[in-house]
Amino acid sequence: MSSTAPRARTLGELRASGWESRDLRAELRANLLARLRGGEPLFDGILGYDDTVLPALENAILCGHDLIFLGERGQAKSRMIRALVGLLDEWIPAIEGSEIADDPLAPVSAFGRERVAELGDATPIQWLSREDRYGEKLATPDTSVADLVGDVDPVKVARGRTLGDELTIHFGLLPRTNRGIFCINELPDLTEKVQVALFNVLEERDFQVKGYRVRLPLDVLVVASANPEDYTSRGRIITPLKDRYAAQIRTHYPPTRELELEIAHQESELPEVDGVDVTLPPFMAEIVAETTFQARSSPDVNQTSGVSVRMTIANLETLVANAVRRALATAETEAVPRISDLFALDASTQGKLELEYAGADKEEIDVIHELRRRAVRTVFDERVPVEGVASVVAAFEQGWNVEVSAEMPADEYLEGLDAIPGLREGAAALAGGESAARLASAIEFLLEGLHLSNRLNKTEREGRTVYAQP
């Protein structure tokens, strides 16, 4: 966005500049068409919606429709709504002091009309940036009509104005976003009384306050978000309001693990420490994403609530953080997450799942551990061929055992490594290199995969894990 607003500071200067008014929907439509013609993306950083959500959203904007995003938590609904601001003009003029951003060439409020009638071309104007034209409200049961639409201002009445005077109105959030985009997050949480108050805004494009005989036309795009469970099961959006939202856009989770990881890498803020290089093996990242995918199909997890991509992001960040912490403790220069670091993900996973039968047969932590075991086994089966580990299994059958720990220096993993045929080669192929830290990570992955494949026993005690023959 340009850092400086246009120069016109009065209505006369604005007219002399040749500026022309246009309504909000025409503005959004024109800017969207310019992007489409130029091959520019509608949003930056929104992945996986190119063939599903974005075409529906573009259609809604071209039609000038108010719209509602329907989807489970963590599906970028709020992010997309806020990104719609990018389709607004960089700057628009408004009458200075107007609470509802009156268009200087076509004022609608009593204040704006009186100002222009009194001062004419000398009417002062201000310039609003596109960010100034966005309003948002998280719907809660205590949200009132006054919050969204407006109410009588007793202070203005006390100053001598009559109740029939439009200037006694205290405007709510919606009219204050006139000529802009207003978002209502979690729409079903509004009471029915408040939902009824939105009828006129969505259909007649105006609003009324209590018993006033005043109707002010509003130029505002009303966008909302909702969870399908609230929207359909509890039925808390009243039917006439549903009907007034011309477009309902269904969002979804990433359909593939690869896309889930692409989003997680884009959104995560991985810890960085001077003197420590972080390497995230692909199989460890896949385990993190696969855990989320397992949760989205688990009968133990309430699927109507959803499992957010935020779980993958938080787990990825935590996994790397634990590896960095170990590297600092052992004075190593490379931090590489291992299977034994997965215990740290308990803290970043708990609270992000809603169990189907909470407190019945399984505790949340037990469900998390089971999901993680399935994820490791799935990734192991995809990455490690059975014939490739036969020699490793044979060595353990001859009496070998290996002890590992989240706090163990990587060099200790290499002691006796070459005595187990095929282990170094298999680990190096998985690790993508032969540094001690990378090999240690791959060794743990191989051993845990063999255990989950019922080829090795696993014993845990005092923070250490021993893999041995069955």
CATH superfamily of the largest domain: P-loop containing nucleotide triphosphate hydrolases
Level-2 CATH architecture of the largest domain = 3-Layer(aba) Sandwich
**Biggest sheet record:** 5 strands, parallel
Mean pLDDT: 90
Shape: elongated
**What is the number of E strands?**
16
Instruction: Give the number of helices.
Output: 20
CATH domain fold name of the largest domain: Rossmann fold
Q: What's the CATH first level of the largest domain?
A: Alpha Beta
Portion in strands: 5-15%
Structural class: alpha/beta
Whole-number tally of structural domains: 2
Which sequence of strands runs across the widest sheet? 4-7-10-1-11
Summarize the amount of helix as a percent range. Answer: 40-55%
What's the alpha carbon Rg, rounded to whole Å?
Answer: 30 Å
Describe the 3D structure.
It is a single chain. With 470 residues, the chain is of the alpha/beta class. It has two domains: 11-250, Rossmann fold (3-Layer(aba) Sandwich); 257-468, no CATH class. Helix content is 41%, strand content 14%. It contains 20 helices and 16 strands. The protein has helices spanning 11-16, 24-38, 53-63, 77-83, 110-119, 145-148, 154-158, 173-176, 192-197, 199-203, 228-234, 239-244, 257-267, 282-297, 309-329, 345-349, 364-383, 390-397, 423-431, 436-452; strands at residues 67-70, 91-95, 125-129, 134-138, 150-152, 169-171, 180-185, 206-207, 216-217, 220-226, 247-250, 277-278, 334-335, 402-405, 457-461, 464-468. The protein has a five-stranded parallel sheet. It has a three-stranded antiparallel sheet with strand order 14-16-15, covered by helices on one side. Strands 2-3 form a two-stranded antiparallel sheet. A hairpin with a 2-residue loop joins strand 15 and strand 16 (464-468). Helix 19 packs across helix 20 (436-452). The termini are far apart. Residues 231-235 have low confidence and may be disordered.
